[in-house]
Write a structure and sequence with these properties.
With 625 residues, the protein is of the alpha+beta class. InterPro entries: NDK-like_dom, NDK-like_dom_sf, Nucleoside_diP_kinase, Thioredoxin-like_sf, Thioredoxin_CS, Thioredoxin_domain, TXND_domain-containing.
Length: 625
């Protein structure tokens, strides 16, 4: 009950036109979460809004939820499930954000509040905006109708083969069971036709399970299926089976895990599920559901009889965007705003100083072109901003936004395109890059965001109380748990694990602490896994973490510099050494090349930083052991 009261006081509930009009008279900035009655407000941002409210503690900042179904002014928002936030100042719409992008939402709130306070002080006029997302749908579809990329091949299988969609759900993936399950599927004789790892958005999960919308567990199911990565598989029938769907459903067992354990103890759900919601795997209910699910996840997948037909619905794909140094320095925020406004999610982002050799490697197809020297000069003149952009039809839509590669054509044929808008005077090279097709996007994304492994440790002080929360957040951040082991370190093992610190004054305290109870060792994989896990942990000193990164694990769960909840490798080399020490030689498909690793700028070692902090602090305070 207390939690509900907090949310109610945090966000004013607006459910009719009269309340809406009253809300618009509120002085200051009001951030409105527009929602549909059937899907409810965006719960994922409530904790963020509460944090912002507490930190800013400003009477001019207000939050509200508005039910579009019963408010005339929000008629055009009906029937949509994408999270949408409207910013109102003085009753006027001053900004719009689509999608639950927490960093962008926080930044926009701070910026728009500052603007509104300035307006109230100076009495100047507001810059009113219109929601570009509400363009006439037919006009929008006509403008953006995607064409099949020339180099994107459809996967065609004989019409005589039956198929089904299988999903290894986030609970099984988070516990490192995906590979085991896939091996058992193949050992059972099922043919694996397609395989993709992806994290569903809430909107996608809601759409995928729309046939279960009337069931009481629907909202929990949506939240669970969007909580972390899943593995999406397309399976064909085992030999001698006319219809794969009954065979697959027999193999996975009943949806109720307890029933599966009683009646089908060898089934996947009996072996890997924990309860009905967290039952490890999904299977299509019948051939109609299999066809719809196939179109949902793999629109380029066709049977021979369908090869001439258009796809149903595009799946979310990713493309690479590069903002070259000149424009990255001056127009970064403006371009990012246009990217978000166009419905993209920035899945990954990094600034990179490229060497000449790396530019030649990336643009190997252009090295012999007349313009390459100018391109090389531009790409090495400063930091390049690399982005992994995600949305349905990402490659096509980003290419449309960019416009023609030739600047003269861009300015003449499409002056509103990004390349025309952000052309640099006396510079013949356009300032933005996009992948030409989905296959090229995969290569380019792998170049800038190679898969990495890192070792993560949940230390004894955090394991007992915060284990489930930390594991959930690891999954929610898009990490895959490749290996997991809970263990009590022997003194010899702890000393060997921290052998590089043997001469440090805090070494004995550290070893004593790490041996006093169980800890959890994890191998995490993701693009930029080392850097992202370090960012998720936060500074090694919890007090600094609370100042600089209040949502980090150490800021929330650490007691002091020694008992700081979690550990992470400082670089790829250290990660591989420690992974081998704990788990032995385990294979990986994500080991980056030396060249790829060189793309990231050198950063200070988090272990070295931690050592200095511990050394300083342990001279001032005693261990809590």
């Amino acid at each position: 009950m207390a939690a509900k009261k907090k949310e109610a006081s945090l966000q004013t509930s607006v459910t009719n036109q009269e309340q809406w009009e009253e809300m618009l008279t509120t002085k200051g900035l009001t951030v409105v979460d527009v929602y549909q009655q059937w899907c409810g407000p965006c719960r994922a941002v409530v904790s963020l809004l509460r944090k912002i409210k507490n930190e800013l503690s400003d009477d001019l900042l207000h939050f509200a939820t508005a039910e579009a179904d019963n408010i005339d002014a929000l008629e055009k928002y009906r029937g949509k499930c994408e999270p949408t936030f409207l910013f109102f100042g003085g009753g006027e719409l001053v900004a719009v954000l689509r999608g639950a992008n927490a960093p962008m939402l926080q930044r926009m709130i701070v910026e728009e509040l500052a603007k509104e306070k300035l307006i109230l002080v100076q009495g100047s006029g507001r810059k009113v905006v219109r929601d570009e997302g509400l363009l006439d749908e037919e006009k929008k579809e006509e403008k953006e109708e995607p064409q099949q990329p020339e180099n994107e091949e459809s996967i065609i299988v004989p019409a005589s083969k039956s198929y089904t969609v299988a999903i290894i759900k986030p609970d099984a993936v988070a516990h490192g069971k995906a590979n085991d399950i896939i091996m058992k599927i193949q050992d059972a004789g099922f043919e694996l036709l397609a395989h993709e790892e992806r994290t569903l958005t809430e909107a996608e999960a809601r759409d995928f399970y729309q046939h279960k919308a009337a069931e009481t567990c629907f909202e929990d199911l949506v939240q669970f299926m969007s909580s972390g990565p899943s593995h999406i598989l397309v399976l064909s029938q085992i030999e001698g089976t006319a219809n794969i769907i009954p065979a697959w459903r027999e193999f996975i067992g009943p949806a109720d895990v307890e029933e599966a354990r009683r009646e089908k103890p060898e089934s996947l759900r009996a072996q890997y599920g924990t309860e009905t919601l967290f039952n490890a795997v999904h299977g299509s209910e019948d051939s109609d559901h299999a066809s719809r699910e196939l179109a949902f996840f793999f629109p380029n997948f066709r049977t021979a009889s369908e090869a001439e037909q258009d796809g149903e619905e595009e799946h979310v794909e990713r493309t690479l965007a590069l903002i070259r140094p000149d424009v990255a320095r001056k127009n970064r925020d403006e371009i990012l705003a246009q990217i978000h406004k166009s419905g993209f999610t920035v899945a990954l982002q990094k600034e990179v100083m490229l060497t000449e050799e790396q530019v030649k490697q990336f643009y190997f197809q252009h090295v012999d072109k007349d313009y390459f020297p100018a391109l090389l000069r531009s790409m090495t003149s400063g930091a390049v901003l690399a982005l992994a952009l995600a949305r349905k039809g990402a490659v096509h839509h980003w290419k449309n936004m960019l416009g023609p590669p030739d600047l003269h054509k861009a300015k003449e044929e499409d002056p509103e395109c990004l390349r025309a808008q952000f052309a640099v005077e006396n510079e013949p090279i356009n300032q933005l890059h996009g992948s030409t097709n989905p296959k090229e996007a995969e290569r380019e994304l792998d170049f800038f965001f190679p898969k990495q492994r890192t070792l993560a440790v949940i230390k004894p002080d955090a394991l007992e109380e915060h284990r489930e929360t930390i594991l959930e957040e690891i999954s929610g951040r898009g990490f895959t748990v490749a290996q997991l082991e809970e263990t009590v370190l022997s003194r010899e093992m702890a000393e060997e694990f921290y052998k590089e610190h043997r001469e440090k004054p805090f070494f004995i305290q550290l070893v004593d602490f790490m041996c006093r109870g169980p800890c959890m060792m994890l191998v995490l994989t993701k693009e930029n896994a080392v850097e992202e896990w370090r960012a998720m942990m936060g500074p090694s000193d919890p007090e600094k973490a609370k100042e600089k990164s209040p949502q980090s694990l150490r800021a929330r769960f650490a007691a002091d510099i020694l008992h700081n909840a979690v550990h992470g490798s400082s670089n790829e080399q250290h990660a591989e050494e420690k992974i081998r020490f704990i788990f032995g030689d385990i294979s990986t498909d994500a080991a980056p090349t030396a060249d790829r690793g060189a793309i990231s700028a050198e950063e200070p070692s988090s272990s070295e930083d931690e050592n200095k902090e511990i050394s300083r602090c342990t001279t001032e305070e005693t261990s809590n052991d």
